[in-house]
Each structure stands twice: as structure tokens, then as C-alpha cells.
Design a protein that fits this description.
With 121 residues, chain A is mostly beta strands. Chain A contains no helices and 13 strands. In chain B, strand 5 and strand 6 form a beta hairpin. Classes of the chains: A mainly beta (121), B mainly beta (113).
């Protein structure tokens, strides 16, 4: 089946402009995660959703960054008033979330999209 | 706080050599999950394996094998008889149930013909 898709794949913008990055998760996946990866480093967590509810946004660097997933499927990460330091690869991942008999949530594998490479000039 | 350390930033081997990529983690959770992902030159992140903290059995998949040692908080990855196509950046990652991944800094593996 289709994997996680992201658009655009590349985005070049001028400092001060707003950008919106889109993620379309694997069909049926409940959880959706956003990460940011600087060149030569591992991905760093930004935020995640279960269905349409944002569960954790502790990784968002500042209030210029926001994310939404209004219908529990496609998600948009928005960066307002972009700065050069925002340049990075932005990665989206999705996973199933399965509740065990005791109600404990199991960690399911996160599958990543191809990423959006953002360059702020 | 969770932390993953991949001390080897870059490894270079000649084709057919065996190579081990090290991963050491820190967590206070008793239930956690460990992952390895591959990032080839094309840039995508490809899932390789997931293990939970209750399962210390080593795993082998073709030329790949993983050694999980809870006593040393390590989850090492060995490629046997390496091939040029194995050249990539490999990331180890840690998560607790239902939550985000904490990645190591990655190890760049170069396999020369």
C-alpha cells in the first residue's frame, strides 16, 4: 500500500515568509509525528497527534511553529515568519497505536515519509 | 530524560568485511522500545528493526543481526559481509510506549568496493 507522503519535497523561501508543510499518513494510522533533522544530525521530535488531538508539542522550538490535524488524517506543519535557522529536513511519520488489555498503549513502529527539505534564504 | 549515543560518527570498510555499529541508550523507563533506521544517500528513513525492553533475544535477518544487552544498555547492529549498497547513515532510536522517538546522532557507514 501507499506509504507516508509529504509535500512539497523541496521548499525555498525568503526570510520572513510563512510556509506550510503537508503530511499524508498511511491509511488507518492513528498517530502522526513531526520531526526536524538538521544536516549531519539525527531527527528531533517536534510534535505528535493521536487522531486529531495534539498529544505533545513540547518539541516545537517557539511559537512560530504550529501544527494541526483537523480531521485526524492529513496534517500541516506551519512555520510563520521563517528564519534562516529554520532550514532543515522536516520529516513526518505515522504509526498504528494499539491499546493492550490493560489499557497500556503499545509502541508501534513509526514509518517515515520522504521529508520536506526547507531552505530559508 | 532519554538519550541515545552512537559514538562512531563514521566507519569505512571494504566490501565483504563485517562491521558493527554501536548504540548505547539511557532511560528511566522500565518499558521501552529500541529501533534502527537506515538513511541511504537518497535521504529517506527506512525502518530496519524494533525491539522491546522485555525481549533480549538477539535477532538475525539475512546479513543483519542485532545484539540487545540490557545490562550494558546497548543495542548494537552488525552487518555481515558488507556490500556497497549498505553505505548509508544508520540511526539508533529509543521510545517509550506511544510516544516520540529519541534518535542518536547517526553513524555514516561507507563500504568501498
Amino acid at each position: 500500500g501507499a506509504g507516508v507522503s509529504q509535500s512539497p519535497r523541496y521548499k525555498v523561501t525568503k526570510r520572513g515568509q510563512d510556509v506550510a508543510l503537508r503530511c499524508d499518513p498511511i491509511s488507518g494510522h492513528v498517530s502522526l509525528y513531526w520531526y526536524r533533522q538538521a544536516l549531519g544530525q539525527g531527527p528531533e521530535f517536534l510534535t505528535y497527534f493521536n487522531y486529531e488531538a495534539q498529544q505533545d508539542k513540547s518539541g516545537l522550538p517557539n511559537d512560530r511553529f504550529s501544527a494541526e490535524r483537523p480531521e485526524g488524517s492529513i496534517s500541516t506543519l506551519t512555520i510563520q515568519r521563517t528564519e534562516q535557522r529554520d532550514s532543515a529536513m522536516y520529516r513526518c511519520a505515522s504509526s498504528l497505536v494499539r491499546g493492550g488489555a490493560s489499557g497500556v498503549v503499545r509502541q508501534e513502529t513509526q514509518y517515515f515519509g520522504p521529508g520536506t527539505r526547507l531552505l530559508v534564504l | 530524560a532519554q538519550k541515545v549515543t552512537q559514538a562512531q560518527t563514521e566507519i569505512s570498510v571494504v566490501e565483504k568485511e563485517d562491521v558493527t555499529l554501536d548504540c548505547v541508550y539511557e532511560t528511566r523507563d522500565t518499558t521501552y522500545y529500541l529501533f534502527w533506521y537506515k538513511q541511504p544517500p537518497s535521504g529517506e528513513l527506512v525502518f530496519l528493526i524494533r525491539r522491546n525492553s522485555f525481549d533480549e533475544q538477539n535477532e538475525i535477518s539475512g546479513r543483519y543481526s542485532w545484539n540487545f544487552q540490557k545490562s550494558t544498555s546497548s543495542f548494537n547492529f552488525t552487518i555481515t559481509a558488507s556490500q556497497v549498497v549498505d553505505s548509508a547513515v544508520y540511526f539508533c532510536a529509543l521510545a517509550h510506549a506511544g510516544n516520540m522517538l529519541t534518535f542518536g546522532g547517526g553513524t555514516r557507514l561507507m563500504v568501498k568496493p
